[in-house]
Amino acid sequence: MLKIQFKDQRQPPIWIIEKRYTIGSAADNHLSVDEDSLDKLHARLITANNSLFLKDNNSRQGCYVNGQRITEKELLPGDTIRLGDIEFDILDPLEGSQLSSSPTTSDNSHWLLVADSGSLAGQEFVISSERCTMGRSSHCDISISASQLAREHAEFTIENHQLHIRDLGSSSGVYVNDERVQKGIIQSGDKIRLDVYRFQAIGPDTGERKRRVLPAPQLVEKKSIDTSAKQWKTKPTSPGNRTEPEPRKHAPTLLLLSLLLCAALTAVLVYLLLAD
């Protein structure tokens, strides 16, 4: 998740939780800005594959990222976008947060509750003390003026860097990942619901609150393979693999030699007898 903040900081930074987040001058947008330079639906922020993209909705004055007009472009922390005459900064999860200025968060054990529904969508609530209450009463640590919530609806406590939640007797209940609980331990990324209000819990030192640097791939030295000592035996399935047998040489047999020798001896004996 990333944050979007007005360049003039007219309001606190807003978490982009919705997968499709609309910006325009119409009241039904996620971020409604009453400016003549904005179309009713000027642009969309789309989250896909853990990346955030800005998409122009065929607006009259266009969408710009770092001064360049775009139709659709991935957004990165540090980018500046301009819609009509309004400029926004794209922030890292911790940049511009209440956490950076909170004196009670030096131990880095704070948690965030980021609202992802209704009029609170994108707002963040910091849980940095050992005990924090949420409800509609002004005496609560997190006070939300809404009739759907009990005066003291839920209690959050941090024990050994773990976030615990407890229902304080509300009629509409406390839900963690859509399961009603009286008390429980919350993991980073869990969904919390108090009546109609939904929040996502973000724990300390999670991937949502710091960048991951992937190690550079190591080069693997290629080894040459000497196949000269190997003699591969293959079946003669192709002409290149066939070995034609050499034709046999037809030498005289022993029998033929014996007959010729006998004939020669016989001729010599006949010659000697006739000579006498």
Written account of the structure:
- With 276 residues, the chain is mostly beta strands.
- 8% of the residues lie in helices and 34% in strands.
- It contains one helix and 22 strands.
- The strands form four sheets. Strands 2-1-11-10-7-8 form a six-stranded antiparallel β-sheet, with no helix packed on it. Strands 13-12-22-21-18-19 form a six-stranded antiparallel β-sheet, with no helix packed on it.
- The N and C termini lie far apart (131 Å).
- Mean pLDDT is 78; it is low at 96-107 and 207-234.
Tally the helices: what do you get? 1
Spatial separation of the terminal alpha carbons: 131 Å
Indicate the overall shape. elongated
Q: Please mark out the parts with pLDDT under 50 across 5 or more consecutive residues, or reply none.
A: 96-107, 207-234
Strand line-up across the major sheet? 2-1-11-10-7-8
- Approximately what portion of the residues adopt beta-strand conformation? 25-35%
The average pLDDT is 78
- Alpha-beta classification: mainly beta
**Secondary-structure element order, N to C:** EEEEEEEEEEEEEEEEEEEEEEH
The percentage helix is: under 10%
The count of β-strands is 22
Q: What summary fits the major beta sheet?
A: 6 strands, antiparallel
Rg over CA atoms: 43 Å
